[in-house]
Amino acid sequence: MSRFFLLLGLFLSVATGLPAAPGGPNVLLIISDDQAWTDYGFMGHPAIETPRLDRLAGESLTYTRGYVAAPLCRPSLASIMLGLHPHQHGITGNDPTLPTKGKRGMAGRKDPAFAGIYETMMHRIEEHPTIAGLLGKRGYLSFQTGKWWEGNHKRGGFTHGMTHGDPTRGGRHGDKGLEISRQGHEPIVEFLDLAKKDDKPFFIWHAPFLPHTPHNPPEELFKKYQAKTDSAHVARYWAMCEWFDRTCGELLDLLDDRGLRENTVVLYVTDNGWIQQPDSKRFAARSKQSPYEGGIRTPIMIRWPGKVEPRRDDATLASAIDLAPTILRACGAPVPESMPGLDLRDTAALGKRNAIFGAAYAHDVADVNEFTRSLNTRYIVHGDWKLLVPNEKNLPGAKVELYNLQSDPHETRNLAAKHPGKVTDLTTRLDAWWPGS
């Protein structure tokens, strides 16, 4: 009889959204910050060494054709947390613009009008269910580390976190949270101790400020890569990628040392790409903030020993908006109908998907109330084909671009003029997804 009531309780828990029974899988979500899809050993980079992420890729179901929802960190991260595209959640840029003053981004933070406009952006994260909030209803503890734009971590539904989010105290894009990994993992150690003490499953949002600028890697790594390139800027960036890899290894070792490997789902993605300019600290064109592969493509991994079979998939299209429904389903939490993504474990469903969509926006939001005004380009990846459709209002004179990614993965030959039928077909699909206004 006790077994019957136990099973009944588990059924009602799933059906009604009541807290999960103890022992649900833990979740670690690792988010790289400003790293190109090519910049890993397992992706074939000729110089960068990433042995720990190579090992993780080998232990995971690894989709090498993953894509983010936007090539800019704040909208991309919001899409990961909410499982929605930027035009759905309303977070389309990093900073607001004060329309009456002409002040862009955080330069206007001392203006009296700034607080209200900034709050409008901050509130958007609270208008939709978050991964952390939904897991909290299932009895999970959650911890925010690293990059987090949306104010105090509690606004994202986290039970615990590092970011205070107060703009009067330098709260922007993570503040205190940006110390994680660069200055060790002690806050995560303390959180793991707390979860163990409370006997609670956990969710960790790990978005370290790596390999993001400042590119100030350990000296021995910088010297190692100086021997591989004539550019000090490139050497520093390459060294940052290996430094990030080391910190990921340290974090994964923490799980292993605590016996948490088997019951922890580890997922990996990057927020947006980066191509280092050899003669500058800046990123090159066609990377960060652009809709090209260097800005939006990323490997996406999921590791769950004994539950997800390790395999490399170089064909299937995966999206960062798939992470939220994957995590929620793995933890037995309900997935809101508003989330359009798929479960990354459902390879049959992903195999039937015919396209990935996304959009690139300006860095600063022109109008927080008409948040799609900053739209620059919409994109669709359909099989081997990719179409970029510019927004004429913001990019006057820009041309539609069509690429075959199998033969031209770095998008050097615009085939739009040669394949007008393909342009028409993909434009129709893109408009059906979202017409851009």
What is this entry, summarized?
The chain has 13 helices and 15 strands.
Identify the CATH class. Answer: Alpha Beta
Please outline the major beta sheet.
9 strands, mixed
Envelope shape: globular
Distance between the termini: 58 Å
Helicity range:
25-40%
CATH superfamily: Alkaline Phosphatase, subunit A
| Quaternary structure state of the chains depicted | single chain
Cα-based radius of gyration, to the nearest Å: 21 Å
Tell me about this structure.
This protein starts with a helix and ends with a helix. It contains 13 helices and 15 strands. With 437 residues, it is α/β, with parallel strands linked by helices. The strands form 3 sheets. Strands 1, 2, 4, 5, 6, 7, 8, 9 and 10 form a 9-stranded mixed beta sheet that branches. It has a 4-stranded antiparallel beta sheet with strand order 11-13-14-15, with helices on one face. Strands 3-12 form a two-stranded parallel ribbon. The model is unreliable at 1-21 (pLDDT under 50). Helix 8 (219-226) packs across helix 9 (232-257). Helix content is 30%, strand content 17%. The protein has one domain (23-354): Alkaline Phosphatase, subunit A (3-Layer(aba) Sandwich).
Notable traits:
alpha/beta, 437 residues, Alkaline Phosphatase, subunit A, globular, four-stranded antiparallel β-sheet, disordered N terminus
Topology, please?
Blueprint: H1 2-16, E1 26-32, H2 51-58, E2 61-67, H3 73-82, H4 86-89, E3 95-96, H5 114-123, H6 131-136, E4 141-146, E5 160-161, H7 186-198, E6 202-207, H8 219-226, H9 232-257, E7 264-270, H10 293-296, E8 297-303, E9 311-313, E10 318-319, H11 323-330, H12 347-352, E11 356-361, E12 364-365, E13 375-382, E14 385-390, E15 401-404, H13 420-433
Parallel strand pairs: 1-6, 1-7, 2-9, 2-10, 3-12, 4-5, 4-6
Antiparallel strand pairs: 2-8, 7-8, 11-13, 13-14, 14-15
Helix pairs in contact: 8-9
